[in-house]
Fold each of these.
Amino acid sequence: MNIKKMMQNLYQLRDEDFAKYHINSDPIEGKIPKQIRGKVIRESLDCGYEEARSLMGMVELPNGVRDIDIVRLAESLGISIKMKKAHNAMEYIYFGTYEEPGIIRLYQDNIRKGEALVKEHNIEELIGINLEEVVLAHEIFHHIEARKKELYVNSFRINLWKLGPYTHRSRLICTGEIAGMAFARKLLNLNFCPNVLDVLFLYPHNQMQAERLYQEIIKLSKKDYE
Ligand SMILES: [Zn+2]
C-alpha cells in the first residue's frame, strides 16, 4: 500500500483507536485486565487533554487570543531543546526523546525525512503541519509527567502479584504515551492523532516495517474494549 493511502486511512482513526495500539505495546500488556482497558484509555486521554488545557490557560492573552509558541513554552517550563542529527539504533528510529532533568532531543534528520515524504506524495492532510512541533509537544508532556506526581498516569497502578498482605503494583508505560498523544493534539489544535506520524516517520527508513506497523494499528483499532 502506498504511504498516501495509509496516511488517509490512519487519519480516520480516533484517539481511542490509537490508544489500543499503545495498550498493546505496553511491556506488561498481559497484566492489564480486559474489562478496565476502556477506562484506562479514557482517563489517560482526559489526563493529556486536561494538562494541555491548563498550559494553554497560562499563555492565553487578555483578549482571548492564544499565542502558542511551543519552543518558548518549552523553555518557560525549564526544558532545554537539543537538535540532534540522525542517531538510529538497529531496530528503532528516534524522532524525539525526553530525559531528566528536562532535556528534549529532536532528531531533525528523521523528522525532515517525514516532511519530505509529505511533500513528495502530496499528503494533503499533513501539508503545512510543523512535524517538529508535534514531536516537541509530545515530549513536553513527559516533562510535565515527570514533575506532577498527582497525575492519573502517575498514580494509576496495576496489581502484578499478591503475597499474603503484600500486593506488588506497577505503573504502566502506555498511560503516559496515550496522554502524551492527547496532550500534543490539544495543545497544537491538530485535527488528527499525532501517532499517524509513527508510520510516516518509519516509512523512509523501512517501508515494509512501516506497512506492518500500519496493519497492526488498523487491526488493533477494531478491538472492542468496554
Ligand atoms: Zn512518549
Amino acid sequence: MKQQLKSLIDIFRYKPSDYQFLNKEIERIYKIIPTDFGGGCSRQKGLLMSLLISEMNLKATVDIGVYRGRSLFPQAIAHNSFSNGVVYGVDPYSNEAAIQNDRPDLKKALDNFVDETNFNDIYDFVKNLVKKEEFQDSCKLVREKSIDAAVFFKENNLLFDLIHIDGNHDTSFVLKDVEHYLPLLKEKGFIVLDDISWESVKPAYNILKKQINLVDELINESNDFALFSKGLNRKEQKHTLKIFRQVRK
Ligand SMILES: C[S@@+](CC[C@H](N)C(=O)[O-])C[C@H]1O[C@@H](n2cnc3c(N)ncnc32)[C@H](O)[C@@H]1O
C-alpha cells in the first residue's frame, strides 16, 4: 500500500526532462516550419544545439543562415525556457546573397531556387513567428550578411558560446565565416558547422579541426554536420559527448 502510494505521488511529481521538453517543443515548431530545398535543420541538430544551451547554460548564440528558422527556433526555445540567453539570427534575406557557385552538380537547382524564392516573405514569416511565440527577448534577427554582422558584434563586444555556421556554402564565404567568427567565440564555446561533406565546406572544416577540438559529427540521410568545442575541461568534454550520444538516437 505504502509503495503504491509512493508510485502515485511520483506520477503527480513527474516533470519532463530538458530532453523530453525540448524534443516535444522542436517537434511542435517543426510542424510550423517544414523542411524544403532551401533549408532543413534536422531534429537531431536542433536538439543538440538546444540541449547544449540548456545543459551548459549558454547565454549567447548565433545562427548564421536562418532561412525559415529551423536551426534558429530550437535555440530560441532553449534560451527562453532555460538559459535566459539570446540567439542572434543572421541572414541578409537577399536573392543576390543566396547565389552559390561551388556545386556544379546542383547549380541549376540552386539557381532555380534563388530565382523562385521571395526572401522578403521568408524574413516576414520568421519575424512574425518570433512575435507569435513571444521570443522577442530570446531571439534577435540581424538582416545582414554574416561578415557585416561580425563587424557589428565586434564593435559591441558581443562574444558567443555557440556559433552555428549554415550561411552561403561557397568556399570563400564559409572560410570568411570561420575567419570572422572564430575570434567571436568565448574562451569556452562551441561551433556547429553544417554540410561538412560538401567539398566547398571541407576547407573550413579542416581549419576548425586544426584550431579547435572536433567533438563528433553526424552524417546520414538527414544530417551532415560537425560539432567543435574550445576550452572545455574534462568534465565538460564528457558532458558534451554525452549530449551528442543522446541526440544520435
Ligand atoms: C542553407 S540555408 C540555412 C538553413 C537554416 N539554417 C535551416 O536550418 O533551415 C542558407 C541561408 O544562408 C543565407 N545566406 C546567404 N548568404 C549569407 C551570408 N553572407 N550571411 C548570412 N547568411 C547568408 C541565405 O539567405 C539562406 O537563407
